[in-house]
Amino acid sequence: SLQADCTPLQKKCERYWPEKQGEPFVCGPFTVYCVSILSCARPLPTLTGSWLKLRTLHQLHYVNWPDHGVPDSIAPILEMLQDMRSYQDHDDIPLCIHCSAGCGRTGALCVIDYTWNLVKSQMVPEDFSIFSLVQDMRTQRPSVVQTKVAGFFIYFILRKKKKKALTNLLVPVYQKAFDNLCYICHTWS
């Protein structure tokens, strides 16, 4: 493990959830309760799930995505996105996605989820471009999708998902997206 040789991790964000069932977490006027901790049907060593009660919300906490890097495997990310949507009764229920700074990893997940929902609903605009989507998102949140490797990761995940559900609609959209890849690598810092 790389962590064994490193100094203690730098604190990136505040914890706002209880770590154990039966031990409420108090934060100012709010008390958050852990109703239960999920036992997943499939092994996901990098993901824990908890039912929290402030209002009732479900938290998925992916713990193996390094800051300024990408996960070693895409399967857990795809499973997490699928799980995330399975807890959403309908699209009007908001989702809260965040990483330590709320931009790099958060942006990558938002781009993947948004793009895949366009594909599933067959509502991909003819001029759709992942690069343009990221640029637009950056007008609302600077540094969304922070690194080149995160850009490659987005395309890699979407390409893998595309192979599972290939339709004639996807071919021109993804071809255009991949044509933009070289340009993206030169412009994302």
What does this structure look like?
The chain is an alpha+beta fold. Helix content is about 40%, strand content about 15%. It folds into 2 domains: about 1-65, no CATH class; about 65-189, Protein-Tyrosine Phosphatase, Chain A (Alpha-Beta Complex), CATH 3.90.190. The chain has a 4-stranded antiparallel β-sheet, covered by helices on one side. A hairpin with a 2-residue loop joins strand 1 and strand 2.
Short description:
This protein is an alpha+beta fold.
Topology (SSEs and partners):
Layout: E1 25-27, E2 30-37, E3 47-53, E4 56-62, H1 75-86, H2 104-120, H3 130-140, H4 148-164, H5 170-179, H6 181-187
Antiparallel strand pairs: 1-2, 2-3, 3-4
Helix pairs in contact: 2-4, 4-6
Could you give the order of the helices and strands? EEEEHHHHHH
Instruction: Output the radius of gyration.
Output: 18 Å
Low-confidence stretches: 166-175, 181-186
Arithmetic mean pLDDT: 77
The name CATH uses for the topology of the largest domain is Protein-Tyrosine Phosphatase, Chain A
Please give the CATH architecture of the largest domain. Answer: Alpha-Beta Complex
Topology, number of strands: 4
Which structural class best describes the helix and strand composition? alpha+beta
Briefly, what CATH class of the largest domain?
A: Alpha Beta
> Helical proportion?
25-40%
Largest sheet: 4 strands, antiparallel
Write down the domain tally. 2
Give the CATH H-level superfamily of the largest domain: Protein tyrosine phosphatase superfamily
Percent in strands = 5-15%
How far from one another are the termini?
A: 28 Å
> Tell me, what's the shape?
globular
User: Strand sequence of the main sheet, in spatial order?
Assistant: 1-2-3-4
Q: What is the tally of helical segments?
A: 6
Protein name: protein-tyrosine-phosphatase
EC number: 3.1.3.48
Keywords: Hydrolase, Protein phosphatase
Enzyme class: hydrolase
